[in-house]
Design goal:
2 helices, 98 residues, alpha+beta
């Protein structure tokens, strides 16, 4: 029997995410956010989850800026704000969905 060819890094298998209203971006590449965040918001809305906490970390703020830009453009988002002392401070963003 022949072995199947080794898969390349560009052939990625989709990963199932639990839809809980909390999305931790630490394990994702920044390039994935443009499709990941809108899809996650759609799933939350479909499941009746009205508030989503997106954990982007504190870091340099680049990821937070990207998240905020995506939330501003999303027709699903009514409003968003930074987390408070109990929800991640400025390392997380809380979005309210339509």
């Amino acid at each position: 029997m022949k072995r199947p060819p080794a898969s390349s890094a560009s052939e990625e298998t989709p990963v199932a995410l639990p839809i809980t209203g909390e999305l931790d971006l630490h394990t994702f590449r920044p390039d994935d956010l443009g499709t990941l965040i809108p899809a996650y918001l759609d799933e939350c809305a479909a499941r009746g989850i009205p508030t989503v906490r997106i954990i982007h970390g504190k870091g340099t703020g680049t990821l937070r800026t990207t998240v905020h830009a995506l939330l501003r453009r999303s027709p699903r988002v009514v409003s968003f704000r930074g987390g408070d002392e109990t929800s991640g401070s400025w390392g997380a963003t809380i979005a309210t969905l339509r």
